[in-house]
Design a protein that fits this description.
alpha+beta, six-stranded antiparallel barrel, four-stranded parallel β-sheet, 21 helices, about 30% helix
Length: about 850
């Protein structure tokens, strides 16, 4: 029987219901091949020839498909109707041909449908087509570009910027957006201003709010009332005058419904209304699509099929009445930059199926379906009719003027079922206005009537910085710039978080120190490739390939010529040069201007050295003096762009029982805690390093005192010997000092590492004895310890693990060991990171010794 291949088992199950038992339906489980994770998989010297490999996880699925195809010579490739779906189908065909599973007379056809419904599926099988090689070549170009950037730029980062991880073509641009917003926030200077509002009443006793807009006969600007004294004078000016209504204007207006959902707006609305991240939203939407409940969810199209429009209008008439139905169907045109509109909008496959029908699905799916249904129906409903009223209240001498604004919804229209969410923008120009201004419902106000003053209130305000990006706001900005595509938004946002460049604080994205430094490095040395316009133009070229207007080899050739030159230009770049460039580009952020106008980079300790950004040998970044070691001044650089505590940047944690101050500091080797201050002699005050795995922000007084008290004496081992817990060069550990039986025997020690750095302060004797017993005795050398199992190598055989050895954490794969870059948290290393590190390790060739000369 004919073989049909789709991506997922859920989709296969749904399609099987429609096609019946006459077809054998199998799932590929996504992509079956990818570029080999090693250098040279895109051969730039041979027309960008690519080396593909079937992943370990895909081999069983490919074998099942191969066996099924050998039994029948008819194959239908029914993967998703976009560029990625076309690529999966192409990979399947190429793989089956390479395995000789397809006979010479085999019929291979491509079927596409925008919705997994019976009508759509049956219609697609009636009109199959060949593979669209323009779409495939667009995929090949995109995949090659991403590979070339990753495998050429990432090693540059590892060598030139310790602690940095891989760089991605679009991910780096996305990271730049977040970092630039953070720098804006840190450079922001707060400004005070005041507003004055009054509670007024009509002669009939009805109250309303008005805001002071005119003072001393002049219209007020935002910052005209600058301080409390000026606000008091304004209050007095209003309170001392009789007021009357000078004019009342009412203007009708219409509010049109928003367009149907596409990928980016679905992600934005799910974030605003439910707090969903992009990946969570797309996961729920994927399940709804595969179940046949909504149309394809990766699209930048907002047009709706005529039959769907007709169904929506019927639902509106039956459920809400003829008044809510426009005379003509609504049509929408996308204004998004580079929108392809290859598919419909995201809508229910059957608009007659109300959300109540699908409440039995998972909570996420039910909420997403409810959102899609309401937005779809609302997009075809009548506009809301609103009356906006403005009343100007003035004094008789014209010195004072106030304005009251309000609105009345005359007809709710689409607002009856749906109102579009809004991003929280704290930089709004409407700051300082009463919360209900513009939305309050004004009472009947007549021109010329008196306005009784019941309360005049001043209110202090401060300007606020632009808001940090949420995932939804970031996607919205990417769409505006033309960066990325619907199938990539969720992956891009997730990747920069997984790389450790960005972390999520509640709902907003905050860059880590490494993310800031990586962006500064790329901006200095690869400026063109993190430029927004350039990235958007490259996206346009990729789209032109998919429509046959560009040749993909030409696009790759033009990109590689310039990019390879940029990579080569960094080969002689020294680490000191990198830090100098970063110091210069981040100077306003790292060294903000001082209030007295003095040099912000002048060392406060010695008064002579220059401050600059430095990296610690053990990872981490700090600000240090150029006169080191004579001057040991340091201050932390934690990504906040500011210093805390005393003038030297230390953070005070409190005092111990003897009254000595405990401080958190950052030095050459990373963060540490210190008791007291250094005296005039050579003796240093007690210090203890903050171990990796403990964030400096989480260090409090109790933790600091615990670290300073190390090593901890746990007592006598049951078999003899003192047991201690402490932190050393390789992290936290417990140690047993082996008992000495005679004077001639040298003392020995047995060590066991602790996975959790905080456990060093709480571990007891029983736990220590257990760990020491599990530890294999070494042969005169410190043995390695397994930290994490990452899984099997995706393209080769053998497990990939994260290990801790005598020289720090490293990746182990078969006989290959690769050091994890300094500053990289081993707990955050993914299998993909590990494979990239393995691929980037240079192959060492043993030198052959010259043959010994024979004696004559």
């Amino acid at each position: 029987m004919p073989v049909v291949v789709v991506e997922s088992p859920a989709k296969a199950k749904t399609i099987g219901k429609y096609l019946g038992k006459d077809y054998s339906i199998l799932a590929s489980y996504g992509h079956v091949r990818d570029l080999a994770a090693k250098d040279g998989s895109v051969n730039t010297g041979n027309r960008f020839e690519m080396t593909w490999e079937v992943g370990d996880s895909s081999r069983a699925h490919v074998k099942a498909i191969s066996d099924a195809v050998r039994a029948d010579n008819e194959l239908y490739l029914a993967t998703d109707p976009d560029r990625e779906g076309e690529a999966i189908s192409w990979h399947l065909r190429e793989t089956l041909q390479k395995r000789r599973a397809l006979r010479k007379d085999a019929v291979v056809k491509r079927v596409v449908f925008n919705a997994v419904t019976k009508d759509a599926v049956v219609e697609a099988f009636r009109e199959p087509r060949d593979l669209d090689m323009d779409l495939v070549e667009a995929y090949l170009a995109r995949r090659a570009l991403d590979y070339l950037v990753g495998f050429n730029l990432s090693p540059v980062l590892w060598r030139k910027l310790p602690g940095a991880k891989s760089a991605g073509r679009v991910q780096s641009v996305c990271l730049k957006l977040i970092v630039e917003r953070e720098l804006e926030i840190r450079a922001f200077r707060q400004r005070e201003y005041w507003s004055v509002s009054a509670k007024l009443a009509t002669p009939r006793g009805d109250e309303y709010e008005a805001r002071l807009t005119v003072l001393e006969g002049r219209r007020l600007d935002k910052f005209d009332i600058a301080d409390e004294d000026a606000a008091g004078a304004a209050v007095q000016a209003v309170s001392s005058r009789q007021l009357f209504v000078d004019s009342v204007q009412s203007k009708p207006s219409r509010r049109n419904p928003p367009a149907p959902l596409m990928t980016s707006t679905l992600q934005q609305e799910a974030s605003r209304k439910f707090g969903f991240g992009t990946r969570r939203t797309m996961s729920a939407a994927q399940k709804l699509y595969e179940a046949g409940l909504i149309t394809y969810m990766r699209t930048d199209g907002i047009h709706m099929a005529p039959e769907a429009v007709s169904d929506a209008r019927q639902v509106i008439t039956e459920s809400y009445g003829i008044d809510y139905l426009p005379k003509r169907p609504r049509t929408y045109r996308n204004k998004v930059k580079n929108a392809q509109e290859a598919h419909e909008c995201i809508r229910p496959t059957s608009i007659a199926d109300r959300p109540e029908k699908h409440r039995n699905r998972s909570p996420d799916e039910a909420r997403i379906y409810d959102l899609v249904w309401k937005r779809t129906v609302a997009s075809q409903m009548e506009s809301a009719r609103i009356e906006r009223t403005t009343a100007d209240v003035v004094s008789k001498d014209g010195a004072v003027g106030l304005r009251a604004t309000g609105q009345v919804v005359l007809f709710d229209g689409f607002l009856r079922i749906y109102e579009e969410g809004r991003d929280a923008d704290s930089s709004s120009e409407d700051q300082g206005r009463p919360d209900n201004e513009g939305n309050q419902r004004l009472p009947a106000i007549a021109r010329g009537e008196a306005a009784e003053k019941r309360k005049v209130t001043p209110e202090q305000h401060f300007t606020k910085p632009p808001p940090r990006y949420t995932e939804a706001m970031l996607v919205k900005r990417m769409v505006e710039l033309g960066i990325g595509r619907p199938s990539t938004y969720a992956t891009i946002v997730s990747t920069i978080q997984e790389r450790g460049y960005v972390h999520k604080d509640k709902a907003v994205l905050v860059p880590e120190v490494t993310g800031i430094l990586v962006t500064a490095f790329l901006q200095n040395h690869f400026r063109r490739y993190v430029n927004y316009d350039y990235t958007a133009q490259l996206e346009e070229q990729l789209d032109a390939i998919s429509s046959g207007r560009e040749a993909y080899l030409d696009v790759l050739g033009n990109f590689w010529t310039d990019f390879s030159s940029a990579v080569e230009a960094t080969s002689e770049l020294r680490f000191s040069d990198v830090l100098d460039h970063i110091n210069e580009s981040l100077e306003p952020y790292i060294f903000p201007a001082t209030d007295d106008g003095s040099d912000p980079r002048l060392c406060r300790n010695c008064g002579d050295g220059q401050l600059s950004l430095r990296t610690a040998r053990g990872g981490g970044t700090f600000i240090g003096c150029s006169n080191y070691p004579d001057c040991r001044y340091t201050r932390p650089f934690d990504g906040s762009g500011r210093t805390d505590g005393e003038s030297n940047g230390d953070r005070s944690l409190g005092q111990d029982a003897d009254g000595k101050e405990i401080t958190l500091r950052t030095g050459r080797f990373g963060p540490y805690v210190q008791k007291g201050e250094a005296g005039g002699g050579k003796d240093r005050p007690p210090r203890a390093s903050v171990p990796k795995g403990i964030s400096p922000d989480s260090v409090d007084l109790d933790l600091a005192l615990g670290l300073l008290s190390l090593p901890r004496n746990l007592g006598e081992h049951p078999e003899g010997g003192l047991v201690e817990a402490s932190i050393g060069k390789y992290g936290p550990f417990v140690v047993r000092h082996m008992p000495v039986e005679n004077e001639s025997q040298s003392p020995g020690k047995s060590y066991a590492n602790l996975a959790d750095p905080r456990e060093v302060l709480t571990i007891g004797m029983n736990r220590a004895v257990e760990l020491l017993a599990q530890k294999r005795p070494g042969r005169g050398r410190r043995s390695s310890e397994l930290l994490r199992e990452l899984g099997d190598h995706p393209t080769e055989s053998g497990a990939v693990n994260v290990m801790r050895g005598p020289y720090g954490p490293y990746i182990k794969w078969n006989k290959t060991n690769v050091k994890i870059p300094d500053g990289t948290d081993p707990a955050r290393v993914t299998l993909e990171d590990a494979v990239e590190l393995i691929a980037a390790k240079p192959v060492r060739r043993r030198r052959r010794r010259p043959a010994a000369k024979r004696r004559k």
